[in-house]
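User: I've been trying to design a sequence by hand for this structure and keep getting stuck. Would you show me what you'd pick, starting by listing the structure so we're on the same page?

Assistant: Good idea, let's start from the same input. This is the structure you sent:
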């Protein structure tokens, strides 16, 4: 199976090439030329397998140039018991009649990014060998918090790779910051930047597009790549947990084989929910995908009106990983619906030049037959955290609360009683001040010291990697000026 660019379908490459390159030269994202399907018997067969083996079966369908043995080694290493503190890897929890939570934060950094970023380094290093690339790779990351730490853990001490993460000095939670600055590993570097996330992202994009720097690094034996969700190697591992959750519900006797269910997803860059869209296309019985946003509700408006407009106020919320106005992976959905590189290029061109684009009524209707959308502000999200803890004894983080609240509103408004799985994307202990406030508790201490407090107040144990964080020392204290990013890369690779 080949992959082509969303903006130019004549660019056709192998899976390994797509994963090694990350982004197509003309700016498009790589997508599979066909989506493989599973019969109901094949889905039933997955139910007897553990998470690792389910991952092998699903990923194999998209990665013809990787052997099954290779993928098995990768899955065993990525989702091992040392890395994940749950045998199920991504367990499903029942909260009420027809209400389920899929916990995606049992990995080493306690956010759902681990599900893909534990796998990506294996896929990428194998891709370099398969494509005959003899240079070493430097992974550059601009992060608003979770991706940076998950990428650092994934790539630490990976041979033939180095990783450099830029984060906005004042734009991440204190827990997230200490997680990154205390990172271990001989091939890692972490730098704050004076500016916000957009400055970090823009700086990194400029580095990627600098022909001069590319040539200079090439001479030294380096090439640059990305661990962002624009890379197909990050999207693919996310398809697995939709299938896995479905199988777990069958095994628990909660659903009948073939029964359609909904998934509700806290959304930022549209990567997580897009994996659900692919799962549905592959034959997983999914009724609807519910796209949940915080106050940055550009997607909610898009699904309602067909107009995507990023020219709007940007809000900093208590769910910072969803504070985003340009959802990159939406491009892959548009590519699938329009089936035309020209059309996608035109829409993305107008997003760049005018800050907006509009789709036609027929396409909007097709989207509406699969997706629903809704948004929730901070106060409502806090109420969801508080009420769910009081009524059900279940503690959730701020991002999960957005989706769970949107699910509730959706069910009340539409009367749709289809069983619904809400994806839980981070441990509540990553966002201690906001969660404690939601519970009506004082929170004067710095974030990392509140981890123990939240645990005491709720009786819920903190995940080990976060409990171990208090008292850790920062290893990296460097802060780059906005204009110093290229220099920082040079120094790191010299
Ligand atoms: C990244 C992230 C999201 C958003 O996921 P997308 O794939 O960008 O839509 C939601 N919640 C948390 C905790 C995250 O880290």
């Amino acid at each position: 199976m080949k992959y082509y660019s969303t903006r130019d379908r004549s660019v056709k490459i192998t899976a390994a090439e797509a994963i090694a390159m990350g982004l197509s030269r003309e700016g498009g994202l790589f997508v599979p030329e066909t989506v493989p399907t599973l019969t109901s018997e094949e889905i039933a067969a997955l139910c007897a397998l553990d998470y690792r083996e389910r991952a092998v079966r699903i990923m194999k369908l998209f990665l013809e140039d990787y052997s099954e043995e290779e993928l098995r080694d990768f899955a065993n290493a990525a989702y091992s018991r040392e890395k994940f503190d749950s045998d199920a890897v991504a367990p499903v929890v029942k909260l009420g009649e027809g209400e389920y939570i899929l916990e995606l934060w049992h990995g080493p950094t306690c956010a759902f990014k681990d599900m893909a970023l534990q796998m990506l380094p294996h896929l990428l290093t194998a891709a370099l060998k398969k494509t005959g690339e003899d240079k070493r790779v430097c992974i550059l990351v601009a992060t608003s918090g979770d991706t940076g730490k998950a990428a650092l853990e994934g790539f630490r001490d990976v041979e033939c790779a180095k990783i450099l993460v830029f984060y906005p000095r004042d734009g991440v939670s204190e827990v997230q910051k200490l997680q990154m600055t205390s990172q271990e590993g001989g091939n890692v570097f972490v730098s704050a930047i004076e500016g916000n996330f957009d400055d970090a992202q823009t700086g990194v994009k400029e580095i990627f597009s600098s022909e001069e720097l590319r040539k200079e690094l090439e001479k030294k034996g380096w090439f640059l790549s990305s661990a962002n969700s624009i890379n197909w190697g990050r999207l693919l591992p996310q398809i697995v947990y939709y299938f896995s959750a479905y199988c777990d519900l069958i095994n628990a006797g909660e659903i009948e084989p073939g029964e359609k269910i909904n998934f509700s997803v806290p959304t930022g860059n549209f990567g997580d929910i897009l994996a659900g869209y692919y799962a549905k296309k592959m034959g997983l019985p999914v009724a609807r995908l519910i796209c949940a946003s915080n106050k940055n509700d550009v997607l909610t408006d898009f699904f309602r009106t067909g107009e995507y407009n990023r020219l709007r106020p940007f809000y900093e919320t208590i769910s910072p990983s969803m504070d985003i106005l340009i959802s990159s992976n939406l491009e892959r959905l548009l590519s699938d619906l329009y089936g035309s590189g020209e059309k996608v290029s035109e829409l993305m061109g107008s997003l760049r030049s005018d800050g907006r684009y509009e789709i036609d009524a027929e396409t909007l209707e097709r989207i509406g037959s699969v997706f629903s959308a809704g948004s929730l502000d901070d106060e409502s999200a806090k109420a969801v955290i508080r009420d769910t803890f009081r009524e059900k004894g279940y503690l959730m983080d701020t991002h999960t609360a957005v989706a769970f609240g949107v699910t509730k509103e959706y069910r009340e408004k539409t009367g749709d009683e289809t069983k619904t799985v809400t994806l839980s994307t981070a441990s509540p202990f990553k966002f201690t001040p906001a969660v404690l406030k939601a519970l009506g508790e004082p929170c004067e201490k710095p974030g990392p010291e509140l981890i123990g407090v939240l645990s005491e107040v709720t009786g819920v144990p903190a995940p080990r990697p976060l409990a171990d964080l208090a008292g850790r020392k920062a290893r990296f204290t460097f802060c780059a000026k906005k204009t110093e990013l290229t220099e920082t890369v040079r120094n790191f690779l010299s």
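That's my pick for every position. To get oriented when you compare it with your attempt: Residues 111-113, 146, 229, 266-272, 321-322, 399, 425-426 surround pyridoxal-5'-phosphate (CB under 6 Å). The first strand starts at residue 3 and ends at 5.
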